[in-house]
Amino acid sequence: MTDDQTAIVGPRVFNEEAGSPRLALARELALGFAYWLVFLIILQPGNVFQAAKADIPLHFSQELLRIGGASLLGAAITPLLLRLTRRFPVEGSRRWRHALIHALSIFCLSLALIFIAQILAGWLLTDRDPRLQAPLDRQIVANAPLLILCMAAFVAAAHAVIFWRRAEQESLSLAGARNQALQARNAAAPRSYLTTVPVKTRGRTLLLPVAEIDWVETQGNYLALHVGPASHLIRETLASFESSLDPDRFVRIHRTALVAIDRVQEISALSNGDASVRLVDGTRLRLSRKYRAGAAALLTSSTNR
């Protein structure tokens, strides 16, 4: 696929999968908010312990505002992290270069988050929470490792999802290619039909040529293979036996009978919708209206030869 084709197909696929760019962005922001919210809630017991150790009272509304604001900041950088993941996958010959890009990006983003959070906290919460009055360098030392760990875990999870989806698509594509190859091979391979039938007569087993069979009928659990005035019994179902015969030479005319097309001499309609089939040896068979539509063309072509 060329670059021009990719440019055309890409937006269409994106819209089909995500609905629209705005909807995709909303999903990414929601995912980021949920991820950072869970991360901060996990850290909350440690924050409560540190506040109690420093004899700093914590207020529910204040903590809710702090966690919510931090989650919104994390959500804001989530689309950027996802785009970095798609643009610089850690695989192939450039995996180390892309890994370095991710490391530098995560480090810079952690510093930016701490700086922005310090400004917002100083504007909203510093007067009520002495912990936030610490200098910026101490905030970096205290919070940067956790932020880097959190973003690295998110990027790693995003890579894992991308790899899993790609592997799933490749597996489906491979299965589809195998099925197509199998179908093509089966279509190209000529179908082999039954040419002889083993029949028992007088204690012996003979190979009866299929070309000598005039017609076949069911007799209980057996099939009667009619060859001129003689008949031979074999234990098989009519459906199974029919599937092994060349459909250009034999056709079903009744639920209990099929006939060799080249043995048909005449077809005459009956008043009830059925038809009467006369073979070259004078045998008359019933052509049921259930099979008449499918058999008429082949039988007619035989009688016209």
Describe this structure in words.
The two termini are about 55 Å apart. Helix content is about 60%, strand content about 15%. It is built from 7 helices and 10 strands. Strand 8 and strand 9 form a beta hairpin.
The chain-level structural class is: alpha+beta
Rg is 40 Å
- Total domain modules: 2
Q: Poorly predicted ranges (pLDDT <50, ≥5 residues)?
A: 1-18
Strand order in the sheet with the most strands: 5-4-3-7-6
Order of helices and strands: HHHHHEEEEEHEEEEEH
> How would you characterize the largest beta sheet?
5 strands, antiparallel
What is the helix content? 55-70%
The span between the termini is 54 Å
What is the mean pLDDT?
Answer: 77
Instruction: Let me know the number of strands.
Output: 10
Shape: rod-shaped
Percent range for β-strand residues: 15-25%
Helical stretch tally: 7
Give the topology.
Layout: H1 3-18, H2 21-53, H3 60-87, H4 95-124, H5 136-188, E1 196-201, E2 204-209, E3 215-219, E4 222-227, E5 230-234, H6 238-243, E6 250-254, E7 257-260, E8 264-269, E9 275-279, E10 284-287, H7 289-303
Antiparallel strand pairs: 1-2, 3-4, 3-7, 4-5, 6-7, 8-9, 9-10
Helix pairs in contact: 2-3, 3-4, 3-5, 4-5
